[in-house]
TrEMBL record:
The keyword tRNA processing applies. This is tRNA N6-adenosine threonylcarbamoyltransferase. Transmembrane segments: none annotated. The gene is tsaD. Keywords: Acyltransferase, Cytoplasm, Iron, Metal-binding, Transferase, tRNA processing. Required for the formation of a threonylcarbamoyl group on adenosine at position 37 (t(6)A37) in tRNAs that read codons beginning with adenine. Is involved in the transfer of the threonylcarbamoyl moiety of threonylcarbamoyl-AMP (TC-AMP) to the N6 group of A37, together with TsaE and TsaB. TsaD likely plays a direct catalytic role in this reaction. Pfam families: TsaD. Belongs to the KAE1 / TsaD family. Substrate binds at L137, V138, S139, G140, G141, D170, G183, D187, N278. SUPFAM superfamilies: Actin-like ATPase domain. Its cofactor is Fe(2+).
Amino acid sequence: IHILAIESSCDDTSASVFKNEVVLSNSIANQNVHREYGGVVPELASRAHQQNIVPVVHKALKDAGVNADDIDAVAFTRGPGLMGSLLVGTSFAKGFALANNIPLIDVNHLHAHVLAHFIKEPDQETAHPEFPFLCLLVSGGNSQIVLVKDYMHMQVVGQTIDDAAGEAFDKCAKVMGLPYPGGPLVDKLAKEGKPNAFEFARPRVKDYDYSFSGLKTSFLYFLRDRLKENPNFIEENKNDLCASLQSTIVDILLDKLEKAADDLNISQIALAGGVSANSGLRDGLQKMAVRKKWITFIPKFAYTTDNAAMVAITGYYKFLAKDFVEQDAAPYSRVVF
Ligand code: ATP
Ligand code: FE
């Protein structure tokens, strides 16, 4: 089975071709237009998708060494995401399905982030989690602990009640004057700083839920007060600020993950989403795993942020279940898992 998958939920246009569970190609066009605005501008994102989608799909087919008529089904991200962005990928996928007379498969972007763990590389054995496992899904728009029962059945056991972890990284980075997206830069600078240099507010929320808006405010007020005394405070303490911020976010994330894993008695633990690229989170998880005797799974870097390969693997399992949609399937910007 050959699947073509399209991802266009936010600011990356991506297309991928799979042969069963194996990735043959994964092509991505990043959008640089948003940098100067300090965040993704939805209207600019949809316009860039419109320009990128055809070349990105061509490249995915070419890299995979297949033609359009070799494709057996087309999968697309239906949501959640930015409506204008989703519409571009959805419309393209519909047109492709119609033109080639093949089935259309809708994919939930969050399920796709989780199922990225099952992507197989050509001629390579990769370990993947066994069901049921817990997945800490931490991205730009979401922070949740997901109980993954099988490919199709997932249950959110805890989630953020306000900002996502990625947003906390990005917004605090912005306050320090770092360009968007700040997460990867905070990670880089944190490597040279002391994680216990500064203390920031830790949230108190129920069960396995998260909250990051208080941390953001605490960070902002802390800097405002220090800047009054020393206008160069940020410049002089950038590495320590990044290290302290990162360690606070990582502690918050791992604390609830540990609680959920204990209560649900699960020892297979996976990370997913853009923030799983964070080295502090990866290290923290590994240390916790040794102590808790967990078996952990972290996706390959390319499959942590938005990509169509994760949409393709999800589409493949839906194909096996003959779970198709018609031409009237409309994208959704928000979703109840
Ligand atoms: P969603 O999947 O919830 O719709 P998204 O697709 O925009 O959101 P991703 O692409 O999965 O999110 O992740 C992007 C986020 O990951 C950004 O907030 C970015 O700052 C963050 N991020 C990426 N690399 C790192 C890193 N090394 N450290 C911290 N954060 C990072
Ligand atoms: Fe995403």
